[in-house]
Write a structure and sequence with these properties.
The complex is a heterodimer. By secondary structure, chain A is mostly helical. Chain A is built from 22 helices and two strands. Chain A starts with a helix and ends with a helix. Classes of the chains: A mainly alpha, B mainly alpha. At the A-B interface, helix 8, helix 9, helix 17, helix 18 and helix 19 of A face helix 1, helix 2, helix 3, helix 4 and helix 5 of B.
């Protein structure tokens, strides 16, 4: 089938009234929660997962994707209005976005962010539609050894391109793998790490883990910082960018989109790296680099475009290979598994309406987001002023009931509380929970394929290096690790992720 | 800054992690909590020279050791036919190695001090969620939500009684409306003795 035909199939799925409503609802609720300070996209998606349990699979994924980019946009609004990044990917937006807001140009900054994101979203969605199928075709030829190497590459990529200590991030992946082993081993029927608790025989559920590590831990951290007070926000005057603004912003938007899409496809790349790289690129090509940090509109347009392009490009490895490149995609894979869908190259062939419906819904979702956000920005501002003391009990209630109703199991709520504490402790020790999530999702797949590859090779561990595709994937992974150890690269990476 | 007894070999990369926005005066920090030193103050010298990394390293190592100890009798099989104990042992060993590296580095390099802990939000939120877990099946949804809101309220700046009661009431009614009437989930709404 050709690209146009596929996209038309997708549009016919995603334009059905039900799915359109879900896409709209997802974008709306995602923005609503994403606007709240301290709640980044990962936490938002984790918290809102339960909303989608009772939907048909296509609708659930469309809604989740809507929640995802809604929360991303909401995070940018918070960054611009209160100078508080919800997630590391909107850290750079704070610099010039909030500077613009202080000059009374908050409305222009918000509109620029929305329009740049829209452009990047549309461009990247087309890229997904073009690049996804060939990649999946390659993946269909993969054997277990190739899968193991691919997953290792994905995990190592996630570690090296993220910020913070590499060893700690690897340790977090290992911890995630460890958690994924809890329960009954599918091959032998032996139970592992269950502490004799029958509730753990089926393993740790994905929802309490994600909600605890991201949702509860975020709430605790936000409470620690604000104590429950509201925020003062910058006032908004005019919304529309002037001709001069547009002239300055559009080349930056295009450059940001290209940068973000390229970095987003890389395993572990994702939105943070994209936005940082786009910002430094703008600063380099600008004839007036001194304007950056003082409210330069390019400093809002480029990182916002890159951030959105990268987060959407992440769907490419997730949908076509079944390998999540970051924590949010791991959440999406978890959601698919709950609906009985195994992500991977076979989705495209077996469930084309799911794959293309989701892609087409991204096109629609990005448009909805702009239509939704420009007129409703005043509402988000008011929401930011609501004291957190009123908001967080509501979020807590939602997390608890969501986790409980997954299996009607109070044990899951208990687990969530434990993971909340763990998430908070890890955060305090500067260990990121995102790699843990990746390890947890990939764990069963990794173990199964590792065992199978060894079985097929008769116990020869060199099989991973000698098979050509597997060997080259491993070589790339080794190269990445090696590059990371080089002191010059290390220093530059640390600088790139440093707060201004 | 007084000269430190050892040269600063290499800055720990953990210092470079973006801070989570401006954090004025951490709220709910227990007064006099031990080892309270925020980043930016002079780092604590004891224990080690990168207390945050030291704690992280020890935590990682202990997770690895627990995994190895729990899986000590599990069959690992052979490489050609791996059994259920193989993967846990492999991951356990790798975790111990990673933990040892982080710990070792924390003793050699200077790094971030242990940040202060927000005991109040941590304990408040955790207690509220645990209480919900205990109450939802025995007492029902409405009391569980009220308990959750009431206890959770203590995690931040407590609300005054009237707004608190309003918030609890609205949330309880909203939950029943959304989850029981709307989505039709089989949840117990009231305690057994009120409506069986």
């Amino acid at each position: 089938m050709d690209l146009i035909g596929n996209l038309l199939l997708g549009l016919s799925v995603s334009l059905s009234p039900d799915n359109l409503l879900l896409c709209f609802g997802g974008a709306l609720i995602g923005t609503l929660i994403g606007v709240l300070p301290g709640l980044g996209p990962t936490a938002t998606v984790a918290m809102l997962l339960p909303l989608t349990f009772h939907l048909p699979p296509v609708g659930a994924l469309i809604m989740l994707a809507g929640i995802f980019y809604g929360s991303q946009y909401g995070g940018s609004a918070t960054a611009i209005l209160v100078n508080l990044p919800g997630e590391s990917s909107s850290v750079v937006t704070c610099l010039d976005g909030h500077a613009m807001a202080r000059q009374g140009r908050a409305g222009v900054a918000l509109a620029t962010a929305a329009l740049a994101s829209l452009f990047a979203g549309l461009a990247t969605t087309v890229l997904i539609a073009v690049a996804g199928p060939p990649l999946a075709g390659v993946a269909l030829a993969f054997g277990p050894a190739e899968y193991v190497s691919l997953m290792l590459l994905g995990l190592i990529g996630a570690v090296t391109l993220a910020h913070g200590s590499v060893v700690k991030a690897i340790a977090m992946i290992l911890l995630g793998l460890l958690f994924s082993m809890v329960g009954t081993d599918v091959n032998s029927g032996d139970t592992r790490f269950t502490f004799g608790l029958p509730q753990l025989y089926d393993g740790i559920d994905f929802v309490p883990l994600a909600m605890g590590l991201f949702g509860l831990a975020e709430i605790i951290a936000s409470l620690e910082q604000t104590g429950g007070a509201g925020r003062t926000t910058a006032p908004i005057a005019s919304l529309w960018p002037k001709r001069e603004d547009i002239r300055q912003a559009w080349p930056a938007t295009v450059r940001g989109t290209v940068m973000g899409a390229l970095l987003g496809i890389l395993p572990g790349g994702g939105a943070t790296l994209g936005s940082f790289a786009a910002y430094s690129l703008e600063k380099k090509v600008s004839r007036h680099p001194e304007r950056f940090g003082q409210g330069a509109i390019e400093g809002v347009a480029a990182p916002e475009a890159a951030n959105n392009a990268a987060s959407q490009a992440c769907f490419i490895p997730m949908l076509s290979l079944g390998i999540p490149p970051n924590a949010i995609m791991a959440l999406m894979i978890g959601a698919m598994t709950i609906h009985g869908i195994t992500p991977g190259p076979q989705i495209m062939a077996k469930q084309p309406e799911l794959f293309w419906g989701m892609i087409a819904s991204m096109l629609i979702g990005n448009v909805i987001l702009v239509i939704l956000n420009l007129p409703m920005i005043g509402l988000w501002v008011r929401l930011l002023r609501v004291p957190y003391g009123y908001l967080f009990p509501a979020i807590l209630v939602f997390c608890c009931i969501g986790t409980y109703t997954l299996n009607n199991s109070a044990f899951n709520v208990l687990l969530m509380a434990l993971f909340g504490v763990l998430g908070y402790v890890l955060r305090k020790l500067d260990c990121e929970p995102a790699p843990l999530m990746l390890g947890f999702v990939l764990g069963p797949l990794l173990e199964e394929n590792l065992g199978r590859a060894l079985l097929l090779s008769g116990g020869d561990p060199t099989v991973f290096a000698t098979r050509p595709i597997s060997g080259s994937l491993l070589a790339v992974a080794a190269l990445l690790l090696l590059v990371m150890v080089m002191p010059a690269v290390r220093r530059r990476r640390d600088e790139a992720f440093k707060d201004e | 800054m007084p000269s430190l007894p050892f040269p600063n070999l290499r800055q720990s990369s953990s210092v470079a992690a973006p801070s989570r926005g401006p954090s004025p005066a951490p709220f709910g920090t227990a007064p006099g909590a031990p080892r309270n030193a925020t980043v930016g103050e002079r780092p604590l010298r004891i224990p080690g020279r990168a207390p945050q990394d030291l704690a992280a390293g020890l935590l990682i190592t202990s997770f690895g050791l627990i995994a190895l100890w729990m899986g000590r009798d599990w069959p690992t099989g052979t490489l050609a036919y791996v059994q259920s104990g193989f993967f846990p042992r492999m991951i356990g060993i790798l975790m111990v190695l990673a933990g040892a590296m982080v710990t070792g580095r924390s003793l050699l390099n200077h790094g971030a001090a242990l940040p202060s802990w927000g005991w109040r939000p941590l304990l408040g939120v955790t207690a509220a969620v645990l209480a919900f877990a205990g109450a939802v099946e025995t007492l029902g949804l409405v009391p569980a939500v009220l308990i959750l809101v009431g206890l959770g309220n203590l995690a931040g700046q407590p609300l005054r009684p009237v707004p608190l009661a309003l918030l609890g009431g609205v949330l309880a009614v909203g939950c029943v409306a959304l989850f029981v009437w709307g989505l039709g989930l089989p949840l117990r709404v009231w305690p057994l003795w009120v409506s069986p």
